[in-house]
Structures are given as C-alpha cells and as structure tokens.
Amino acid sequence: MPPRKPPRAVVRRAPRQQRAHDTVAIILEAAQQILRAHGLPGFNTNRIAERAGVSVGSLYGYFPNKQSILLALARRLLAEDREAFLAALAAADEATVDPIRRLVRVLLARHAHDAPVRRVLLGVYMGAGLAGDDAHHIAQLTEAVASHPQGPRAARALAPIQLFVIARAVLGVARALTDARDGPALPMQAVEDEAVKLVNAYLLAATPSDAGGNAAANSVNSASSSARMPSSP
Q1: Of 64, 121, 220, 222, which has the maximum CB count within 10 A?
Q2: Which stretches of sequence are listed as region Disordered (predicted)?
Q3: pTM of the prediction?
Q4: Helix (H, G, I), strand (E, B) or coil at 116
Q5: Domain shared by 197 and 150, yes or no
Q6: Is residue 232 in some structural domain?
Q7: % of the chain residues with pLDDT over 70
Q8: pLDDT tens digit string along 151-179?
C-alpha cells in the first residue's frame, strides 16, 4: 500500500486580488485568536468566521476545513521564524551583540513566545506528514548560517555534519521551550547564556573534517533529501 501523501494545498482558492489576500489574512488572524483563546477543542469554523466578520460560506471558499486553516497558520508561523532568523543573520556584522548570541536569542524567543499556540500548530503540522518539509526548512536556515561570512561558522571551519549536529542541538533547546508545560518557567537569560556556551564549546572542540566526516555528512544529506517533501513551509 503506497504511503499516504500529505496535503499539498492549504488554501482551496488561491487569492488573486488584494481584497482576497486581505480576506485570507483576516481569517488567519481570527483563527489564531480563536486558537489562543479556546485551544484546539474550541477551534471551529463558525467561531473563526464570526471573529473574522465573514460568512462561513466565504471562509469555505478559501479553506475546505479547519485542518487546512491550522496548516496555513503553521506555515505562516514557520515563515515568520525564517524571516526573523534571517534578519538576525543579516545584522550579524554589527558589533553590539556577537553573531552567535544574536541568532540563539532570536531562536529561543520565537519558540518561547505564544508557546501553547505554537505547540498545537507544530503538532498538527507534523501530524499531517510534513516532517520532511520541516527538515527542509531547517536545512535552508542552516545553509544560510553556513554561507554567511559573519555567521558562527566563520569562527571555525565546520563540516556539514558538524553544522548539522550543533544546529539540531540548539534547535532542540528551543523546541523544549515550546513543549514545556509544567513546572516553573525557565529564566530566559540563563537559557540563552547556556545555549551560547553550548555553541561556543562545540566550535572550540570542532576539528576540520576528514574523509570519513564528509562521507557521514553526505549520508545525512542523502537521508534528509529522501525524506523531503515537494513543497516547503
């Protein structure tokens, strides 16, 4: 039996005019407000349409169901993450904050903000079979860091496998902030400081890759490519 293909189209009708784009944006903003206020159990198209000021019929003209709205919100969230991260990277040559701290700070702040909503959206996103898209998204950001002359890689020549490991390590810390539910809130400054120590310690210990390291990197990249879906968030 062939594997289930993940949903490719989030929006039923592609908005061609500015008014349609505005309507989609209003619907998505209303949907996020409903999700924030009522959680997933209270998330339904009637509430969204009422909050957005549109008819349910108009909403269904753009989104076939609430699942498609959740996926659109997840993709919007990941796009905002990417924009914030790339903006921080573009400003990495400023002397006020070192590049590593700047990138870690943005990554942690994005994952700590509005954590209940992010947790739901990423759960729906992964549950829809889009883990390959997520891997592609992370690979794009990692490549942006790798190619930037002032990025963390500039401090030490890293092999692709080393860059993969440290990127995933810091991302794991960030996503743990999203997943945290119980217990006292972690002090963000302390988390940032420890994550920066993690990156710096790894960079200090990293050695230039050998042939084996390159082979391992090729293996990782090949596995990532095979899991990648046609579209990216």
Answers
A1: 121
A2: 210-233
A3: 0.77
A4: helix
A5: yes
A6: no
A7: 76
A8: 666 656 678 888 889 889 999 999 999 99
